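pasting input
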Amino acid sequence: MSDNNPVTVVESRPGALDTRVSARKARPSYVSTTNACKLCTPIGAALAFRGIEGCVPFLHGSQGCATYMRRYIISHFREPMDIASSSLGEKHAIYGGGPNLKKGILNVMGKYGAKIVGVATTCLTETIGDDVPMILKEFRREFSDLALPHIVFASTPSYSGTHMEGWHAAVRATVEQLVTDKVSENGTVNIMPGFVSPADIRYLKEIATDFGIRPTILPDISETLDGQALEDYETIPSGGTSLEAIREMSGASASIEFGRTLSCLETAGNVLKKRFDMPLYQIGMPIGLRETDRFFQALEAITGRETPQLHQMERGRLVDAYIDGHKYVSGLKAVVYGEADLVIGLTSFLVEIGIRPVLVATGSKDKVFKQAIEEVCKGIALGASLPAIREGVDFFDIAEEAEGLKPDILVGHAKGYKMAREWNIPLVRAGFPNHDRFGGQRILHLGYRGAQSLLDRIINAIIEKKQADSPIGYWYI
Amino acid sequence: MKTAVIFEERKDQIYRKGEQPFELACNRESLAGAVSQRACVFCGSRVVLYPIADALHLVHGPIGCAVYTWDIRGALSSGPELHRLSFSTDLQEEDVIFGGEKKLEAALNELIERYQPRAAFVYSTCIVGIIGDDLAGVCKKVEAEKGIPVIPVQSEGFKGNKRAGYEAACKAMFRLVGTGDTTGISPVSLNILGDFNLAGEIWIIRDYLKRMGVEVVANITGDGRIADIQRCHGAALNLVQCSGATLDLAKMMKEKYGIPYIRVSYFGIEDMAESLYQVARFFESRDPEIMKRTEAVVREELEELHPKLVEFRKDLEGKKAAIYVGGAFKAFSLIKAFRHLGMKVVMVGSQTGTKEDYRELEEITDPGTIIVDDSNPLELSAFIKEKDVDIFVGGVKERPIAYKLGVGFCDHNHERKIALEGFVGMYNFAKEVHSTVISPVWQFAPRRQKQKEAGNE
Ligand code: SF4
Ligand code: SF4
């Protein structure tokens, strides 16, 4: 549902941004949701748990939720995604799901050989009020003679939050529940990248290695959700952040968290900071030049090293490409949507290359979303106007609002396809889900290289459309 | 070599033909922690009703249930496309605490005004069952105010499995049946039940029926229209495809309106032809020429299809297939279809088969075939390896299991975009099977490579 009062007053100061676009018109606020631009909380938790080595995501609820999410995730990553469920039936819904939760964990231990079970609740179990921590305590006591896996628990009712809250809740729960003891300084750096692609994570590892850092990336879905062809069906896909590495996170020299909306959340980085007095760098998702610069500055500050030549060159080539490509995109109007932090990053990138985001939208509600968008647009947005900024919206809202803005391009996940088709404009796919294209797991968003690849894709989408629309079909464009 | 049964508690849901007298447990709740491939009651009713294209489908619950079912099938419509949108009340914490009825009512009013649908289906999800919203009450109120049928679908996810969802869907549709005018319907007429018009399949079937001289009153539910369903009790016959989905509706219509039904399948050559002949036999007394026309349809189609199949068969002879599908009924036809391609089915299972389904499967399969109910990735991957299959037929969730094991795959579930029904469907099926089985990529798959090395030694 959209905010009923889109009028914003920005403090008048020299160079203050014009907010006329956001104040343009008041739209009705709808009760119903039409084509949601968000997912439910537990799917985020399940995805995050998938990035921990030896971990089986486990949903405490009825079977349907787990099956639906598996299907949704498999369509994007094209990888197996086993999510266990306590498969509650009617009697459990009435008398409590404890027995099934215990039985389910035992089965997952036995057959999957799970080292960690990542338990997340669903709407059902939150509503019937199952006290999961207590059930788990009982479980540990009852089966204390067995070699039990670690059980990480996150509370993820979907009626409060979206998949991103679920993701962050799972990451925080992992740190809270597993990183309990201080280990001695080990020269590692913790990176909590948020929900980025497997390709992004592989690239982050490269960057860290080039800085001479041993990174602990939590979670690490780079292998588990983009695996190799192997000889056998792995019960639990290899890869993921290892339990040892997670334990050792208390010995890191610093933590880095991506996401400008995290500032008002209790995150894993905050937990480490409080518990172990660990420096925390909370920066925006490094998408585009400036946000990536901030990331590299953080790495420089942490390591005391200069950005390696290789990456300086990549940055240089990116700037060169910005210039080479600017005329193709300059002044084009974009609508950007998706997860808040991704949208903020994408917006930051788009304004850098001279595209005018006219509407940026997210399905979630984050206190600082608007502020963050304003920050990344400050002093660089073309036409000195801010985009309309919308939170808690669905695709019906987005379409209604964007219609009059006549965008030239859409940037976001694949579910915007319907709009793109209706308006005959290109959709440049970024983020999750990507159900209608091949290779969603390999889309690169982060860093100089990610910006390069996004830039290439955007410009080529524009050129392709020009060619398709042209009666002549130019060879040289 | 035989793989160990994977979950002790599921032992009696797996059967190997010929080992002992046939016995298979089914229709149970899924085992906790077993990663069942099954969805829920809501899923069952949603997939059945979803293709009714001029109805509003509102999911009352938190957002996930609606999001994951947004345009999930390739169900096509020849007209309105309201079914392709995803509507939800997106329940929030305060709704859960204070009840969601007000929100539901407001959402219904809002959406009915916006889209002017011919009817609305309101699906309840797990959480609605728990907070106890009076779905029926709200629907009744809105129905009176808006003057269109507003039908509650009692589909709380945890109250059984997908089959229970089918039943809920049938009950919901039955409320529409008998409310329309039946004048002008031909005595040689029928309803098509249980076809979802994936990739336009119902149009293929309607074409055959038209050539036979049969009038189709209502498509239930693919390319469905509310007005057609309201008058479908004027048809002389119900044609029910698939084991579970709409059988209950046919039974209710038989009881109340005396309309007989026959169960049919449009997959594969024999089943497709036999289905048409069954219709012809039914109407022969009213239309003596119908059998001749039907034979002509079948002949024409087969003349075109046959030579093409022979070509595919050359490459496929002797290959082995495994099948895991939602409803077991589909599996019967698939087994026969594979035989036409010279292939052998060595494993077959379903999410929601009944005792009768499995007994029939046992009868038509070869000795040694594995029959399984409500399986999971661990078992399925073990069976594929044990039987060393060349192709696995399933849905999106089964695809990565096949691919990780270096095995071809055919999507026979509701997400496919290729028509597999009818004679042309048999051609598409053969083509798809062929294209995956003969692909050169398998030779690079590590498991295949290892097998090859072992064979060469
Ligand atoms: S909440 Fe219930 S109805 Fe919704 S998907 Fe899960 S099991 Fe199905
Ligand atoms: S019930 Fe909740 S957890 Fe389950 S699918 Fe629906 S929104 Fe998601």
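fyi The two ends of chain B are 20 Å apart (CA to CA).
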